[in-house]
């Protein structure tokens, strides 16, 4: 029955200080995950306040706890179910305690630390590990996260060595990032009077927690990876294969990078011969990835060569969702795109090193063009994700039809482009309603190369008249 009300201190906060609804939603949802069975209700009763959603009410309750939290956080398709690791440990520490006289006396006290972890691997390489102490988020980690990560690496090294004949890891040494690739994890520890570093409680500093978490994770994860039940055994084998694959991919990428560095300055700076580069650098620059040599022939004179670069690709590129990193690097089209973008790939991708402000995928307006565009987007999403997240990858919108409408009465002649069949039908119905004629047959573009230079520039490439999809 307790009710707590509070207001912002006017001596600290300005009169227009308010609450960010999104942050409240995230915090309440997080707390509901960390305390299974707890029900939290958020109501927005504000009126005429920026960001207010008056009348909004949301209820947060997650009986699945941190296992459900891990599923909520995951972005990649699942490779495994959620694995739960539980454990506890005791430790002693010396703390100042008030004695009968009121003096602080160093006293040894005994503590218990409870450990609960939820793990889930996905098919991609994105990592999201969240750590908490008594439901307090520790975004910068601490001793609990350090123990967790060291145990992960130790266990996987042992299991890969034990299964070397099947996994064929070679002479390469497993690293932390190989295990973390594709991992979504929620790590929680509960202990009395935790020690934090700094005032913001972002880093756990209690030394004994590291060993307790490490022992728990090592024992529980080893049991998972050596399970004999058919389903559990198959899942463990899948995870081990993924980790070894990530290790080999990292080594391949490193060797590829070292090979590039060993080239002479002239060779390393050389771009693919088919690249038609622009003349300047900076925020205006655009790289068009163009479908086919035919379209490239029209696009060259249609572009503004000062800030628009062109890179043609032949046909459908490799589907990187189903290929390894080594296969991707060995594919000529994928390798050319990575080289021209110039910022690496995967976990080593450097957004600040990208050579162009915009990357524009310019494919035909038909079904094949849509398929090629999807394959290109998959390449960027898997290996150049920060570029997508930054909103710098676009799809050009070339038209599918060109409708010529002759002058009639006081209405001037005009040309209208449509991008879809339904769009064309809507235009024709509108013309019929207005008693406007159009020239037949209506021109349908089977590909970018069928447009002349002026048409391609006006509809697809000129920033003043084109439409892009982000």
Task: Produce a short descriptive summary.
The chain contains 15 helices and 17 strands.
Structure, explained:
Helix 1 crosses helix 2. The longest helix is centred in the middle third of the chain and has 33 residues. The chain is α/β, with parallel strands linked by helices. Strand 3 and strand 4 form a beta hairpin. The protein has 3 domains: 63 residues, no CATH class; 190 residues, Ribosomal Protein S5, domain 2 (2-Layer Sandwich), CATH 3.30.230; 126 residues, Rossmann fold (3-Layer(aba) Sandwich). The protein has 15 helices and 17 strands.
Roughly how much helix do the residues carry, as a percent range? 25-40%
Radius of gyration: 29 Å
Q: Give the strand line-up of the largest sheet.
A: 3-4-7-5-6
Poorly predicted ranges: 262-269
From the spread of the alpha carbons, the general shape counts as globular
How much strand content do the residues show? 15-25%
Total beta strands:
17
Question: How does the helix and strand content classify structurally?
Answer: alpha/beta
Major sheet characteristics: 5 strands, mixed
Question: What is the number of helical segments per DSSP (H or I, 4+ residues)?
Answer: 15
Write down the oligomeric state.
Answer: single chain
CATH fold type of the largest domain: Ribosomal Protein S5, domain 2
Assigned CATH class of the largest domain: Alpha Beta
The count of domains is 3
| Residue-averaged pLDDT | 89
CATH architecture descriptor text of the largest domain:
2-Layer Sandwich
The N- and C-terminal alpha carbons lie at a distance of 50 Å
